[in-house]
Amino acid sequence: MSPEEPVESYYQGIFLTETVLGNPNGSFVNNEPRNVNGRVFTTDKCIKYNIRNYIHQNYEDLDSLDHFVFFYPRKTEDAESHEASFMTKDTVFKQYFDKDFEELLEKSVDARIFGGTFSFTGGGEKAIYGPVQISYGLDLIGADIINHKVGTPFASEDGQQKTTGENRVVDHAVISYDLSVNPKNAPHLLKKGDLEMFKEGIVRGTNLRKSTSKNTNAKALLMIKFKEGQSLNVGELNHLIDVESKKITDPAERPEELLLDFSRLTDRLEDYRESIEEIEVYKDGITQVSNFFDQGEMVKMKGFDEFRGE
Questions:
Q1: Which of 33, 75, 109, 122 is the most exposed, having the fewest neighbouring CB atoms within 10 Å of its CB?
Q2: Total domain count, the chain
Q3: In this structure, are strands 299-303 and 276-283 parallel, antiparallel, or unpaired?
Q4: How many angstroms separate the CA atoms of 31 and 101, rounded?
Q5: Residue 231, Cα to own-chain centre: how many angstroms?
Q6: Please, which residues have CB within 8 angstroms of residue 22's CB and are 6 or more apart in sequence?
Q7: Is residue 85 part of a domain?
Q8: Domain contains 103
């Protein structure tokens, strides 16, 4: 496979993450885990940031602009290391590509993957609907939100150390995202090397973005490749995975394995079996999959160690 060859096949997929005593995607209002009436969900932007941040840290070369991550926060030239002063999108475009849109597409991997809208000095816009789309994430196990008080290093007016803050996390969430790759959104734009970098970035970027509050781990990635010429959509898949593991209410009782039942997913895909070329299933070492197609010519089971980076 040449990394420069364009992707011609349509893909659908699922990405699964697990968060224990962490915040998978906080709201901008109060950093509470995003939810609708307590049902936890996440946006696509948190996963896209993981991918972009990973590519930026591991592949981007500012001298040659190879693997440039266009939609990534960049500090202004006069900003100190501790200052949050960032360039606008138009400034990034002008500084790095001098209004050369074709060079941007040639160099910017995230623009080829996710698309974007680009404004030009003097008016006018170019918009690309990205070949790769990520849905909002859906919690599969009924995570509960915990709101607990935390102390701060500041004293109250009488000199006592009584100032408190709030920290909101989920007890245990397994989040499932739908993925799709439709090369017809922007013909010949997405390269095979870009798609491999996307898969590596979504897994490793999620696992490497660690903090006290995030604490989210990639657990499984499915990529269903349809035969060339088959441009079909089998509908949303992220809700068709059942988690057999008991939801953690006491972190001390955390199970060694995440048990995933693919029965309903298999039933859905069985109707499209003749159109599927192959299914790649990547998972970590403690995630177990049951009731899926047998591993063989169509299904390839792989570990996360496939993604070793540079």
A1: 122
A2: 1
A3: parallel
A4: 36
A5: 23
A6: 169, 170, 213, 214, 215, 216
A7: no
A8: no
- Secondary structure (H, E, C), 217-277: EEEEEEEEEECCCCCCCCCCCHHHCEECCCCCCCHHHCCCCEEEECHHHHHHHHCCHHHEE
What is the enclosing helix (H) or strand (E) of 173?
Answer: strand 164-181
Residues 110/71, Cβ–Cβ less than 8 Å: yes
Number of H helices, E strands in the chain: 6, 15
DSSP β-ladder status, 258-261 and 287-290: parallel
What are the φ and ψ backbone dihedral angles of 223, each rounded to 5 degrees? -125, 110
Is residue 278 within 8 A of residue 299, CB to CB? The reply is yes
The domain of 29 spans 11-44+125-306
pLDDT truncated to tens, each residue of the chain (310 aa)? 688 999 999 999 999 999 988 888 888 777 788 888 888 999 999 999 999 999 999 999 999 999 999 999 998 888 777 777 899 888 898 889 888 889 999 999 999 999 998 876 666 678 899 999 999 999 999 998 888 666 566 666 666 666 666 778 888 999 999 999 999 999 999 999 999 999 999 999 999 876 666 689 999 999 999 998 877 789 999 999 999 988 887 767 766 689 999 999 999 999 999 999 999 999 999 999 999 998 888 999 999 998 876 4
Q: Which pair of tokens denotes residue 184?
A: 């017809």
299 domain residue, yes or no: yes
In which residue are the tokens 């017809």 written?
184
In a domain, 22, yes or no: yes
Exposure string of 254-292, with b = 16+ CB inside 10 Å and e = fewer, is eeeebebbbeebeeebeeeeebbeebbbbbbeebebeeb
Contact 112, 194 (CB under 8 A): yes
